[in-house]
């Protein structure tokens, strides 16, 4: 093996099960697209391979089926829209600040490269849902995705409305900002990914965690990082 990226061997595989039988991996890591992940991760778990999944936009139908297969095959997994340790601390901080600033307006803004297919990002959705959970409000009723041209008066206070906004431009790795705005003041909680090193670091921690995990369930990075 080598740490030199120029010496990494990449194989185009059409039959995942054959590769699993041949290589006998302990853990499979998947950062691809939802249709591929939903197919391949089930194959992995059915063959006793634990999974670390960073793919976003996974369907609830898949997640329910995947959890059933995890229990049936005694094969736990980690799923997180963002493996970066700093982002997962942001999740926790968002909840803490919301408890103290529940009467303020709260907006979530995320920026990514122009090739990112889904919007808003899975990370932004976790942030927004975390805020809703903290406030005890229904995301379906509270979250407002973007604002169109024309009259668009905002409902005051986070319990009434939380705006979620997506920017797609250039080669932005990933920025997430939570804006808490009160009367005459505001607080911005921000995470910026300057490279993908943070995601890789978190993924390695997730691999080590799930390789030794005995409980058959889906874990998130909060559990991996003991937050």
Describe this structure in words.
39% of the residues lie in helices and 22% in strands. The model has no long low-confidence stretch (mean pLDDT 95). Strands 5-6-4-7-8 form a five-stranded mixed β-sheet. It has a four-stranded parallel β-sheet with strand order 1-2-3-9, with helices on both faces. The chain is built from eight helices and nine strands. With 227 residues, it is an alpha/beta fold. It is elongated and about 60 Å long. The longest helix is centred in the middle third of the chain and has 16 residues. Helix 2 packs parallel to helix 3 and helix 4 runs parallel beside helix 5.
State the helicity in percent bands. Answer: 25-40%
The class by helix and strand makeup works out as alpha/beta
- What global shape is seen? elongated
At CATH level 2, the architecture of the largest domain is 2-Layer Sandwich
CATH names the topology of the largest domain as Dihydrodipicolinate Reductase, domain 2
N→C terminal distance = 33 Å
Task: Provide the CATH superfamily of the largest domain.
Answer: Dihydrodipicolinate Reductase, domain 2
Q: What can be said about the biggest beta sheet?
A: 5 strands, mixed
Radius of gyration, whole Å: 19 Å
The largest sheet has its strands arranged as 5-6-4-7-8
CATH C-level class of the largest domain: Alpha Beta
**Could you give the count of β-strands?**
9
State mean pLDDT (0 to 100 scale): 95
Tell me what portion of residues adopts beta-strand conformation: 15-25%
Low-confidence stretches: none
Domain Dihydrodipicolinate reductase C-terminal: 86-225
EC number: 1.17.1.8
Protein name: 4-hydroxy-tetrahydrodipicolinate reductase
InterPro entries: DapB_C, DapB_N, DapB_N_CS, DHDPR_bac, NAD(P)-bd_dom_sf
